Amino acid sequence: MIRNSNRTRRSHQLFTLLVLAPLLSACADNAGSLETNTPAPLPSGEGMVVTANPHATEAGAAILRAGGSAVDAAVAIESVLSLVEPQSSGLGGGGFMTYYDSASKSVMIYDGRETAPQGAHSDMFLDSNGKPYGYLEAKNSGLSIGVPSVVAMLSMAHGEQGRLPWQDLFDDALRLSREGFEVSPRLRSFFEKYGTRLIPATAEEGPLDAYHYFFDESGELRTHLKNPAYANTLEQIRRDPRAMYRGELAAAIVAAAQHAPRAGTLSIEDIAAYTPRKLEPLCAPYRELEICGPPPPASWVAVGMILGMLDAHPFPSGDQLKDWNTFVEAQRLAYADRDRYVADDTHIAVPLQGMLHPQYLAQRATLIDDMAALPTAPHGDPWAFEDSQAALPGTDTTIDYAGTTHFVVVDGWGNVVSMTATVESIFGSARMAGGMFLNNELTDFAKAPRDANGQLVANHPAPGKRPRSSMSPTIALDKDGNFRLATGSPGGNSIIAYTAKTLVGMLDWNMTPQQAIELPNVVARGDTVRVEKARATPELLESLTNHGFNVRESAGENSGLSIVLRHPDGNLEGGVDSRREGTIAIVPPAMVKATR
Q: Per the structure, how many domains does the chain have?
């Protein structure tokens, strides 16, 4: 099932500690005094933090060292990522948290997905001629901004799972916003590649806050950023998280959303009415484990479907090239169902029971031919495995762009956070309020509300509706309910494929978390199979092509996977995506201050 390689694990942990040595040395110097002066028993084990940015990783590790929980660390991490990785996520966006509680051995979901304002309607992204707006027109607009939701979600989770006071969780983000930080190579690369095309550079294109933040008076990209406006926002939120949803912060968000051109309808009332949700997870059995993730409007159900089809097919076969063909076909079939059926299930009926029903997945798996690829991947009829029926929605028209971030935290008590957060596309709407980038999450609704036949698609915009998300933060438990692994990724629609790849790598191909991450990314949505050219072997490309897939070699499969695996002996092993700037921090028990 999972190969327990102590040698590989320990060598990777050594590499991790060397990478983070400057960050952890101060803590190591104080480890003895912490151990001798602890007023209460230490937690039972080590903690681990895996994020896409070194500043965020250290912020999470600092919270664990102070005796904080995984959720406490998540608050600190996201408040830092909002500052240093604004192209991916932030407090002006949303996310999903899959949480494991070690005491009850249970998994729960915190849903912080943005909602559309009450002024939203099905045709909101169509121009005066009834044609969909272009990508940047829709993205860089007030129309695209949903109610920022991650603060409310984190506050809810902290109220139930936090150990440290809320106001103690923002120190690193405050320090960085006031003292400044170096623009990272990844952040700089977006401007080197796109120039100012991703943000308004003239008043006619939209508000210029982002331009002035990143560029100096001579038009040169800044190399060191300070954000006093964000520090002020953090001070308000640390005093009371409800400040995000009322008063001057809410008014600033509304003003940015209602600014021309393409002004949105987001109102103070929309923001004040936002409520995060605590939900039961979706779970699927696989290789003696129970794999769990968030229900709609997230798309984890597609991850569960891929696993279910592989479980119903002879897989693994012992031939990895053959396995890749099977995995790709399972992806195509899962994406076909996800695209057709998944949307906000408080507005649209979604056949979740049918989509994860073993008989339905076995039926779908019979379409996988070991000798040749399907000419096209059809959607199925999961409603046949439900107690009720619903009308078939139109053919999906959603375009889900790749932004987002993912991180994993395990605390010393064995609680786990697997969290994916986003502002949707690069820099979200490119509009700012309170030093934050505001999301363009509403462009995650279908590009056109109706398909070519005039039929309304499931993921069309509507008032109060949450747009469909591909985010799939995952946690797996063993047969006794103990935590075994957490994984997830950014990447738009590709999140499903990236996440499923790591599960197959670890659970079927006996790989370490790092080895599973380094596998080539292969994404099979529709009739084109995108393969990460830089990492795919000639043999893999030849095998996929000979099998009959329409292969497109891609240079843009930029996942940001974060993984933590717990071995049977209790030791933790992390994996971090070398395609981004991620790091891993290990927090031994001796470094942790016990809390009363």
A: 1
Q: What is the pLDDT of residue 36?
A: 25
Range list of β-strands (E), 31-176:
47-51, 94-101, 106-112
| Amino acid found at 542 | E
Domain that holds residue 101: 6-278+398-521+557-591
266 φ/ψ angles, rounded to the nearest 5 degrees: -55, 130
CA distances, 367 to each of 286, 339, 363, 496 (Å):
20, 18, 8, 20
pLDDT for residue 43 is more than 80: no
User: What single DSSP character describes residue 143?
Assistant: G
**What CA–CA distance (Å, rounded) separates 250 from 438?**
12
What is the tally of helices (H) and strands (E) in the chain? 20, 20
Asked, for residue 343, whether it belongs to a domain, the answer is no
- What CA–CA distances, in Å, run from 338 to 288, 299, 341, 445, 511? 25, 7, 6, 14, 28
Q: Is residue 263 part of a domain?
A: yes
d(CA 565, CA 475): 10
pLDDT of residue 306 exceeding 50: yes
d(CA 476, CA 483): 6
DSSP, res 22? H
Greatest Cα pair distance, the chain, in angstroms, is 73
Q: Is 512 a catalytic residue?
A: no
Residue with tokens 């927090």: 587
Measured CA to CA, the distance from residue 509 to residue 159 in angstroms comes to 40
> At residue 402, does pLDDT exceed 60?
yes
327: helix, coil or strand?
helix
With a threshold of 0.90, does the pTM exceed it? Answer: yes
Mean pLDDT of 465-471: 98
Whether residue 391 is contained in a domain is answered as: no
For residue 169, count other CB atoms closer than 10 A to its CB.
Answer: 29
507: domain CATH number?
3.60.20.40
pLDDT at position 9:
34
Report pLDDT for 401. Answer: 67
Average pLDDT over residues 421-429: 97
Q: DSSP labels for 61-88?
A: HHHHHTT--HHHHHHHHHHHHHHH-TTT
**Which listed residue (398, 404, 487, 583) is catalytic?**
404
Beta-strand runs (E) in 198-336: 224-225, 277-279, 282-286, 289-293
Which amino acid type is present at position 561? L
Any idea of the CA torsion for 142, 143, 149, 150, to the nearest 10 degrees?
-70
Kindly report, residue by residue over 506-529, the tens digit of the pLDDT: 999 999 999 999 999 999 999 999
The per-residue pLDDT for range 163-219, each reduced to its tens digit, is: 999 999 999 999 999 999 999 999 999 999 999 999 999 999 999 999 999 999 999
| Contact in structure between 592 and 65 (CB atoms under 8 Å) | yes
- Whether residue 342 lies inside any domain: the answer is no
- Residue 99 near residue 90, CB atoms below 8 Å: no
